[in-house]
Design a protein that fits this description.
Layout (H helix, E strand, L loop, with lengths): L9 E5 L3 H13 L3 E5 L2 H10 L4 E5 L8 H9 L9 E5 L4 H9 L4 E4 L4 H15 L19 E3 L2 E4 L4 E4 L5 E2 L2 H12 L4 E3 H10 L6 H15 L6 E4 L3 E4 L2
Helix pairs in contact: 6-8
This protein binds calcium ion.
The site of calcium ion (CA) has 5 residues, from loops.
């Protein structure tokens, strides 16, 4: 049996449709990854305990009364697994569902039908982002953004632990893409940051960029801003501005 080199990333495919998981397995193998397939949340958990995958491709609708979102929450709530990038594959293309999936902690979201080419580039991007060595046993810091805290006005952004603090309030956790966007907004406080500029920064960091993703990240950021959400202004046909 010819196996890809040991350095090839292990990918856990969690999908109840045998046709789809066979097809994914075939492609992943051809691309040089080491795929394993699980058909349910229970099976996926058993496999993850045996071997921690480097990436999870996760179907939303799974049998046995536990959905992909349940598994996602388990992964994000585990010290050993929280750093694993998760790409949700789903038939649900509604923006609300997409936001829900991202809110629950998925790193990216691909709606069926998707092309294999697109899937491959998303996988590559997620693995690039997570390639930073992670000491899982020490509860290692999951990918993206390093650097010193950014303080502007009432806002303190701490990229190291991905928290945003407003005034004297408790810091809130935000996602990697939001850290990136917030950094740009804070460094240009009161000035408009062009969408293209944000897009370029996101792509530089291996984040998939499209209009929908950016909208999702910005809406998550507004949620994190709470009562200050209105200070994050959408500048029509241009970009975003954070008011001091
Ligand atoms: Ca399914």
């Amino acid at each position: 049996m010819s196996k890809p080199p040991g350095s090839a990333a292990s990918v856990l495919v969690v999908e109840d449709s045998l046709d789809i998981s066979e097809m994914l397995k075939e492609h992943l193998t051809r691309w040089g990854y080491q795929p394993e397939c699980a058909g349910s949340v229970v099976e996926a958990l058993q496999m993850m305990h045996r071997r921690t995958p480097q990436l999870v491709l996760l179907d939303w609708g799974l049998p046995g009364g536990r959905s992909g979102i349940d598994l996602l929450k388990k992964i994000r709530g585990s010290r050993d697994w929280a750093h694993i990038p998760v790409l949700m594959l789903t038939a649900r293309a509604q923006v609300d569902d997409r936001i829900y999936g991202l809110d629950a902690g998925s790193d990216d979201y691909l709606a069926k039908p998707y092309s294999m080419r697109e899937l491959r580039s998303r996988i590559q991007a997620l693995l690039r982002r997570s390639r930073r060595p992670v000491d899982a046993a020490a509860g290692g810091e999951p990918e993206v953004d390093e650097g010193d805290p950014v303080r502007q006005g009432i806002f303190t952004l701490n990229p190291a632990d991905r928290t945003l603090q407003i005034g004297g309030e408790n810091p809130v956790s935000i996602g990697g893409p939001e850290v990136l966007i917030m950094t740009a907004l804070l460094n240009n406080l009161g000035r408009t940051v062009q969408r293209q500029k944000l897009a370029a920064r996101m792509r530089q960091r291996g984040l998939e960029f499209n209009e929908c993703n950016l909208n999702v990240y910005v809406s998550r950021l507004r949620k994190a801003l709470g009562a200050r959400a209105r200070q994050l202004v959408t500048v029509r046909n241009s970009g975003y501005r954070l008011d001091p």
